[in-house]
Design a protein that fits this description.
CATH class of the largest domain: Alpha Beta
Distance between the termini: 28 Å
Helix content: 25-40%
Strand order of the largest sheet: 6-7-8-3-9-10-12-11
Shape: globular
Mean pLDDT: 87
Length: 335
């Protein structure tokens, strides 16, 4: 485990509410996590769990209103992002903190060439001669595996495949050599072969460029392929955290266990896949107590009364379920 002073990003008790008609939607409801330098951390959970809202809060990209940062702290390399002004955030975004959005076709501008769009990110932060900007743009396209990069500078987004567009988005995020990149489900719309290529690309770029990655996903298969550590989110809170080995081999929360049970594996070939009953609660109407209890097979009366504290499994592994914790502890004591 890296030393505490090697933490690049820390998020503490972050709360993001959305206000409209009716009760406030508690999209992020007390989230804590941290990312070390040169580390890949996956934030995993179903759609509606607050993963993307957390990322947008970090980047200062939430529209306020309707969103409101109701509490918490976000520090990037010691700098408070919630106290930073618009100019400070603009200087940080793209320069030291990059973002790869989920859908490149809607994130890329259809009327500008990909070369112009990558160059724009460079020019916004670095005063470089035009020839040097062009050279760096070509190198970035080469770094992310775009063939014939010099010839592709003039191409428009619609002329590229889905995988190539996603590579362009990664090139834009890397344009100024950031310390960390946030990748919001960048492989969701891609077929499995291209998805594997993008994951391999991110792993290689992380190693070569010594950067950290915050990877947002609902796919535990992706987590297994890329993560050093994992935070499992449900209904705006973190319900489990630990190394990839902890999550896959000693899951301590029923939600994590259910996500793992739903994974398609070779030994399930020909069988009906498991699906978690019910759905993620609306953030304005979350149940009292543990928000997962209406869908949980281990529910007890206490689960409906108050939100459980994190249970410490040691080694950085924590899960918000005393029932599973006690069960696993008894089993270990008897073995």
């Amino acid at each position: 485990m890296p030393p505490t002073n090697d933490i690049l990003l820390s998020v503490e008790d972050l709360r993001v509410h959305f206000h409209g008609e009716g009760p406030a939607a508690l999209a992020v409801d007390g989230v804590d996590f941290h990312i070390h330098r040169r580390e890949t951390v996956c934030i995993v959970g179903e759609s509606g769990c607050g993963k993307t809202v957390t990322a947008l809060a970090i980047l200062g990209l939430l529209r306020q209103p309707p969103a409101r940062i109701a509490g918490g702290r976000i520090h990037f390399d010691g700098q408070s992002l919630l106290d930073a002004g618009p100019a400070e955030l603009r200087a940080l975004r793209g320069k030291r903190l990059g973002m790869v959005f989920q859908e490149p076709m809607s994130s890329l501008n259809p009327v500008f060439s990909i070369g112009d769009q990558i160059a724009e990110a460079i020019v916004a932060h670095d005063l470089l001669p035009e020839a040097e900007v062009r050279g760096r743009t070509i190198q970035l396209l080469d770094d992310v595996g775009i063939p014939d990069p010099e010839q592709r500078l003039a191409d428009y987004p619609h002329q590229l495949s889905g995988g190539q567009r996603q590579r362009v988005m990664i090139a834009m995020a890397l344009a100024c050599g950031p310390d960390m990149v946030i990748a919001d489900e960048p492989t969701t719309a891609l077929d499995v072969t291209v998805q594997a290529q993008i994951l391999t690309l991110l792993r290689n770029l992380k190693r070569v460029k010594n950067m950290a990655i915050q990877y947002i996903t609902h796919d535990l298969g992706v987590v297994a392929a890329i993560a050093d550590r994992v935070y499992v989110m449900y209904a705006g809170i973190v319900v489990e955290q630990g190394t990839t080995a902890h999550i896959f081999h000693q899951a301590g929360h029923p939600y994590t266990q259910a996500l793992l049970a739903a994974l398609p594996t070779r030994d399930k070939r020909g069988q009906r896949l498991y699906s978690i009953p019910g759905s993620v609660p609306h953030p304005a109407y979350k149940p009292k107590g543990c928000p997962f209890h209406p869908r949980c097979e281990y529910t007890q009366p206490s689960c409906e009364q108050s939100l459980p504290e994190m249970c410490d499994y040691s080694g950085g592994h924590h899960a918000r379920c005393p029932i599973i914790f006690e069960h696993l502890s008894r089993r270990q004591n008897h073995s």
